[in-house]
Amino acid sequence: LRKEAAERIAQAQDLSDLNQLRVQYLGKKGKVQDLMKNMKNLSKEEKPQFGKDVNALKQHVASRIEEKREELAESEMNMRIEREKIDITLPGRRQTAGNLHPLHIVTQELEDLFIGLGYQVIEGNDIVDDEYCFERANIPKDHPARAMQDSLYIDENNLLRTHTTAIQMKVLEQAAPNLPIKVVCPGKVYRRDDDDATHSHQFMQMEGLVVDRHITLADLKGTLEFLARKMFGQDRQIRFRPSYFPFTEPSVEVDVTCHICNGKGCPTCKGTGWIEILGAGEVHPNVLRMAGYDPEKCSGFAFGVGIERIAMLKYGVDDIRHFYTNDKRFEETFKRFE
Ligand code: PHE
């Protein structure tokens, strides 16, 4: 038995093999314990010697197992060290830092510019009720202007806002009747539209709103001229063209002289020298009244600028879908503008 045990211990491949052997030989029902059963067949004189021999065997096997355990443990450790070896001469993996999204860069730039002029930045919810998106903006249910903005309704009363003018209406209501109001409201807006190079069912706007005593179109013009020059260069001129929005009166469309050809005419401005950048106007008296202001005592201007449009012009992006398809190669090119 001693020899058999020694051989099998020597052959053990790993610690779990060895453990099985320990149970087989030294366990309560193991082979060494079995030997003890023979005790009863022995004479009184033989018993002590037999007991001693079995004990010696037991110790012998136990110490063999212990030796083997140490040997196996060491070789397993060596194998692990070998396996987990780190080659410090390998070149490291390069960590690439992310960068800001171009729409974020433009939004931040506009926010900074207006904060510098004393404006507050206010955001709102993407889902709004009909009342703030349309009614308060002087667009009643049967008004044809509702068709100007194909909307995405969630249920009878709630929709994804079609313009940041919805935030403007909340701001007005919450501030009334206090003066002055000076805010910009950036955010995503949504319209039922087929996506192509210049249309997206989701895009970003920034609304501007100023209400105080004696605010005129001249204030609007000065403000937007400042915006145009900050965003497109110090030589830029702007012009107002008459337009229509239900929530402003008078309403204007604002053009800036082309930053590519400086107003001479090029493909970017379709040869006209001018590029349309936003819609604006004097806040309609009905809008002021509905929010709780007296249009006899104050007036205001508002504008809504498309962030994608500014980004496309500024960076020469030819397809609005680039902003939403998450192509890292496109986004990484904006790192230098951060
Ligand atoms: N809400 C208008 C739009 O989405 C933009 C606008 C805002 C026009 C404020 C005038 C005043 O087109």
Automatic annotation (TrEMBL):
InterPro entries linked to this entry: aa-tRNA-synth_II, aa-tRNA-synth_II/BPL/LPL, Phe-tRNA-synth_IIc_asu, Phe-tRNA_ligase_II_N, Phe_tRNA_ligase_alpha1_bac, Phenylalanyl-tRNA_Synthase, tRNA-bd_arm
Enzyme Commission identifier(s): 6.1.1.20
Main location: cytoplasm
Domain called Aminoacyl-transfer RNA synthetases class-II family profile: residue spans: 106-313
Listed Gene3D superfamilies: Bira Bifunctional Protein, Domain 2
Keywords: Aminoacyl-tRNA synthetase, ATP-binding, Coiled coil, Cytoplasm, Ligase, Magnesium, Metal-binding, Nucleotide-binding, Protein biosynthesis
Entry superkingdom: Bacteria
Subcellular location: Cytoplasm
GO terms for MF: ATP binding; catalytic activity, acting on a protein; magnesium ion binding; phenylalanine-tRNA ligase activity; transferase activity; tRNA binding
Coiled coil: 58-85
Named cofactor requirement(s): Mg(2+)
Known partners and oligomeric status: Tetramer of two alpha and two beta subunits.
Family per record: Belongs to the class-II aminoacyl-tRNA synthetase family. Phe-tRNA synthetase alpha subunit type 1 subfamily.
HAMAP family referenced in this protein's UniProt entry, alphabetically: Phe_tRNA_synth_alpha1 (MF_00281)
Protein name, per record: Phenylalanine--tRNA ligase alpha subunit
Lineage of the species this protein comes from: Bacteria, Bacillati, Bacillota, Erysipelotrichia, Erysipelotrichales
